[in-house]
Amino acid sequence: MKIIVNSIFVQDQDKALEFYTETLGFVKKHDIPIGEFRWIALVSSDEQDGTELLLEPNEHPAAKEYQQKIFAEGIPATMFGVADINKEYERLLEKGVKFTIEPTKMGEVTLAVFDDTCGNYIQIVQQ
C-alpha cells in the first residue's frame, strides 16, 4: 500500500491553484470539472509520478470548521520537505509569502511555517 493522493482544504480553488503552482512551484497534473468544483491535483516538479496534492474545496461545513479551527490554533495543515530550508525561506519571502515561524531547528529537523493565503498554515521541513 502507498499514499497516492493527499488532500488539503482550500477556500478558493483558483486562488489555491495560483499560489501552489506560481509561488510554491508545484505542477498541475489534473484539473477536471466535477459539478461546481474541480478535481485539481498537483505534484512536485521533480516527482511528477509521485504523491498528488488535491486542492479540496472546503464547502462541507465539517471541512470548513476543521480548517478554521486548526488555522486559529496555528496548526499546519500539512508538511512539505525541502532540501535547503534557508534557501526556500528566502525564495518564498521574495515572493511575498508570510511566515509565522522562521526556520527553526527542532531536534533532527529544521522547520518553518507559512500562511498559504487559502486558509492554511503549511510547514516546510529540512531533515
TrEMBL record:
Gene3D superfamilies: 2,3-Dihydroxybiphenyl 1,2-Dioxygenase, domain 1. Transmembrane segments: none annotated. It holds the Pfam family Glyoxalase. Residues 1-127 form the VOC domain. InterPro entries: Glyas_Bleomycin-R_OHBP_Dase, Glyas_Fos-R_dOase_dom, VOC_core. PANTHER family: GLYOXALASE/BLEOMYCIN RESISTANCE PROTEIN/DIOXYGENASE, GLYOXALASE_BLEOMYCIN RESISTANCE PROTEIN_DIOXYGENASE. This is Glyoxalase.
